[in-house]
Amino acid sequence: MSERPILLSVEGITKAYPGVVANSDVSFAIREGEVHALLGENGAGKSTMVKMIYGLVKPDTGRMTWKGGDYAPAAPRVARATGVAMVFQHFSLFEALNVAENVALGMENPPPMKQLAARIKAVSEEYGLPLDPSRMVGDLSAGERQRVEIIRCLLQDPRLLIMDEPTSVLTPQEVEVLFRTLRQLSAEGTAILYISHKLEEIRSLCDAATILRRGKVVGTADPKASTARELAEMMVGATLTPPERPAPKDWGGPHAALEVKRLAVASPIAFGTSLKDVTFTVRKGEVLGIAGVAGNGQDELLLALSGEIRSGDGMVKATGVSVGAMGPAERRKIGFVMAPEDRLGHGAAPDMSLVENAFLTGGVRKGLTRNGFINWPAAREFAEAIIKTYDVRTPGSHVAARALSGGNLQKFVVGRELMQNPDVIVINQPTWGVDAAAAAAIRQAILDRAAEGAAVVVISQDLEELLEIADTFAVLNEGRLTAPRPVKGLTIDQIGLMMGGAHGMEVAHLAEA
Ligand SMILES: Nc1ncnc2c1ncn2[C@@H]1O[C@H](COP(=O)(O)OP(=O)(O)OP(=O)(O)O)[C@@H](O)[C@H]1O
Fold it and tell me: Which residue ranges does the record assign to the ABC transporter domain (predicted)?
C-alpha cells in the first residue's frame, strides 16, 4: 500500500473555536486507494477535520495539498470539483421525492431525469448497492437512504470519499453490503476517509489509522495489526475497564414498575410506523433491551412512553399509575424519565445553553424553580454536575448545545436524565456516536440506576450493547414487539429468529420451540 502516491496531505492544521482548539497542528496523509480511519474520542476533532477537507470550515493555520498541489477549498462545491465527496451522519433527503429527484437536487448540473435514473441504476448495480431510482425516499430504510447519498457521491466519480460514522444506522447485513462497496472502491483507487467509533469495523476495513486526542494527533496505527482494545486505549490515553453489573437485589416480589399493555398508537410522523399491540413489563431493578432496525416504531414507542403521544387508559402504567393521559411533565413528576435518540431538536434545544437545557427536563424533579421563577444558580449547578459526572467536554455550562460535538451532547442528554433519581427510564440509542470509554461509562450508569431500583428500557440497534446490559430482550419489528425473553441463555440463533421479521406471537412461539 505504501507505494501508492499521496493523494491528500494535511500539514500542521489548526482550527480553534471559542474556548476549544478543535484541531491543533494536525498532520497526516492519505494515499490513493487507501482506507484511512480517523479515530478519537468524542470531541477529539474528527468532524472538524473532515469539514475542513470538504470546504465547510476554514482552517486558522496550516495547509493541505492534493496530489502535491495546494488545496484550500473555499466551499464544498470546490471540494467536489476537486474529487472529494462526503456522506454525512445525518442524511439531507426529501422524503416526499423519489430517489432520482433527490440525487438531482444534490448535483450541480443534473442530466434529464430519465438519463439520471439510468445512471443511478448502473452505478447501483456496478457497486452492489441495490436501489430503485423511482422509489419514494420516505419509504426507504435508513440503509437504503444511505445508499442514495453514496450513489449521489459516486456519480461525481470521487477520488476521496469521506464517511462520518456510516454504520450507526445500518443492520449487520447492510454493513456487509457497504463494506463490499467500499473495498471495491478502494481497489479501484478511490481513497476513503472513515470515521467510526466501532473499532472492530475499523480493524476489518481500514489500511491505516490516525488517532486524535483533544485535537492533536497522538499516533498512527495499522488497524489490522492492532486489537480493538489497543486502539481504544490509544484514543483515550488510559486503560479501559468493562462495565460491572452490581449483584441483583430482590425488590420484593414481581412488582412491575412499568407495565405496557396492548399499546396501539398511530404514528404522528410522516412515513412513520404505528405501534400495534405492544405488551411488556419491566420490574424494579430490571433492564429490558429492545432491538430492531431504526424506523420500526422505536421513535413512536419513545413518544408514547414519554407522553408526547397519549394512549388509551391502562395501556401504559408507571409505578402502578395509569399515565396514558399524562403529558411529559406530569410523567416526569412521578419519576418517569426518557432520552430520545434525536439529541439535537428533540433531546436538546440547539440554541439554548447547557444550563437552559438542564432546566428543560430537569426543572420538575430537581426543583429548579423558586416562587414560579427559574432558579438559575440551581439550574447551573445541575448542568455543571452533569458535565462533571459524565465527563462532557465543553468550555462551560454557558455554551450552546449545538457547539458540543455529537458524542458530548449525547453524554449530556443521557446524564441529565439519569441524574434525576428516576424510577422508570426509557432511553433510545444511549451510546449513539459516543466513544468506547464514554459508552462504557453510560452503560455503567444505566446498570447503577437499575441497581438502585429503577426499571429501565433501552432501545438500541447495537446488539452487543443490549446483550451486555439487558436482563430481558425483545425485538421491535414494524410496530410490533416480540415477547421479551431472558437474555441469559439466549442463543444467537434465537435472536436471529426474533429479528428475522416474523411478528409477535409467531416469533415467541417459534423461539420457544
Ligand atoms: N461550531 C462550533 N462552535 C464551537 N465549538 C465547536 C464547533 N464545532 C465543534 N466544536 C468543538 O470542537 C471540538 C471538536 O469537535 P468535533 O465535532 O470535531 O469532534 P468529533 O471528534 O467529531 O466528536 P464526536 O465523535 O463526538 O462527533 C469539540 O470540543 C466541539 O465542542
Answer: 8-239, 258-503
Distance CA 360, CA 350 (A): 12
**Rounded to whole angstroms, how far apart are CA atoms 258 and 249?**
18
**Which cell numbers hold the place of 408?**
458530548
Query: Ligand 1, atom 16: nearest CA belongs to which residue?
Result: 45
**What integer is the mean pLDDT of 428-445?**
86
**Ligand 1 pocket mutation pick from 10, 17, 410 by most atoms within 8 angstroms of CB:** 17
Residue whose CA lies nearest to ligand 1 atom number 8: 403
Q: Quote the percentage of the chain above a pLDDT of 90.
A: 57
Distance 196 CA to ligand 1 centre (A): 15
**Which whole-number Å values give the CA distances from 185 to 128, 130, 154, 170, 402, in the listed order?**
11, 16, 9, 19, 34
Q: How many CB atoms lie within 10 A of CB 402?
A: 12
Phi and psi at 64, nearest 5°, equal -125, 150
- CA-closest candidate to residue 424, choices 265, 283, 254: 283
In this prediction, residue 489 carries a pLDDT of: 82
Cα 489 to Cα 421: distance, rounded to the nearest angstrom: 31
Nearest to 412 by CA among 434, 387, 379: 387
Q: Is 39 in the pocket of ligand 1 (CB under 6 A)?
A: no
Render pLDDT for 241-257 as a digit per residue (tens, 0 to 9): 666 776 667 766 556 78
* 29, β-bridge pairs: 9
CB of 166 within 6 A of ligand 1: the answer is no
Neighbours of 248 (CB within 10 A): 11
Q: What is the 3-state secondary structure (H, E, C) of 144-193?
A: HHHHHHHHHHHCCCCCEEEEECHHHHCCHHHHHHHHHHHHHHHHCCCEEE
Collapsing DSSP to helix, strand or coil, 336 comes out as strand
Q: Find out whether 7 and 31 touch, Cβ atoms under 8 Å.
A: yes
**pTM (global) more than 0.80:** no
End-to-end CA distance of the chain: 51
Query: How many angstroms separate the CA atoms of 78 and 73, rounded?
Result: 5
Domains, the chain, ordered by start:
6-236 (3.40.50.300), 256-512 (3.40.50.300)
* pLDDT tens, position by position, 107-166: 878 889 999 999 999 999 998 888 899 999 988 877 888 889 999 999 989 999 999 888
Looking at this protein, which amino acid is placed at residue 237? G
pLDDT for residue 369 is more than 50:
yes
CA 504 to chain centre: 27
Of 401 and 512, the structure prediction assigns the larger pLDDT to 401
Residue 44 alpha carbon to ligand 1 centre in Å: 7
CB 469 within 8 A of CB 285: no
